[in-house]
From TrEMBL:
CDD domains: cupin_RmlC (cd00438). Catalyzes the epimerization of the C3' and C5'positions of dTDP-6-deoxy-D-xylo-4-hexulose, forming dTDP-6-deoxy-L-lyxo-4-hexulose. Keywords: Isomerase. Homodimer. Pathway: Carbohydrate biosynthesis; dTDP-L-rhamnose biosynthesis. It catalyses: dTDP-4-dehydro-6-deoxy-alpha-D-glucose = dTDP-4-dehydro-beta-L-rhamnose. GO terms for cellular component: cytosol. This is dTDP-4-dehydrorhamnose 3,5-epimerase. Its EC number is 5.1.3.13. The active site is at H66 (proton acceptor), Y136 (proton donor). It comes from Alkanindiges illinoisensis.
């Protein structure tokens, strides 16, 4: 597995080893030992995953920016198995030197990349193709009472979403009404 560091120390892009021949290809989509070794090499704790989620989205669907508060905070290992997304993680750890900064990465069935997003980050994505299927491995169970969202279009975050004229943006009303980063700080609903 190839590990790509990002400008935010705790966020990693993982590229699996893919073995191809005339029949097609094979890869290990997840190996706990390899994952632990990669995180340990970057001085990060390796989590235990407890839940897998799978979403299907049409082109232009924007989901996020979602997170859960402690003690239900979730780390996520995400990947795309069909289609393509622009995936974003925002640092919402108030004591972090990178608080309010974000990383965006293209994940696709073609590039097979995975994105490790530990607890303490808000997460979202926009589907860049129809029939996009997105998989999440999470380190904690979903807890409705702990669920929170940041506004995907918050000018303070200034996320560069790749929205073009061929795309009809589809955002759930709950995500349209999410708090800005400043409002979340004021409401003390961050890490």
């Amino acid at each position: 597995m190839n590990v790509i560091e990002t400008k935010i120390k705790d966020l990693l892009i993982l590229e699996p080893r893919v073995f191809s021949d005339e029949r097609g290809w094979f890869m290990e989509s997840f190996n706990q030992q390899s994952f632990e070794k990669a995180l340990t090499a970057h001085q990060l704790d390796a989590p235990v995953f407890v839940q897998d989620n799978h979403s299907f989205s049409h082109k232009g669907v924007l989901r996020g920016l979602h997170y859960q508060l402690n003690p239900h905070a979730q780390g996520k290992l995400v990947r795309v198995v069909q289609g393509k997304v622009w995936d974003v993680a925002v640092d919402i750890r108030r004591n972090s030197s990178t608080f309010g900064q974000w990383i965006g990465v293209e994940l696709s069935a073609e590039n097979m990349r995975q994105f490790w997003i530990p607890a303490g980050f808000a997460h979202g994505f926009i589907a860049l193709e129809d029939n996009t299927q997105f998989l999440y491995k999470t380190t904690n169970y979903y807890a409705k009472e702990a669920e929170r969202s940041l506004l995907w279009s918050d000018p303070e975050l200034a996320i560069e979403w790749p929205i073009d004229s061929t795309m009809q943006l589809i955002v759930h009303p709950k995500d349209q009404e999410a708090l800005t980063l400043a409002q979340a700080v004021e409401a003390q609903s961050l890490f």
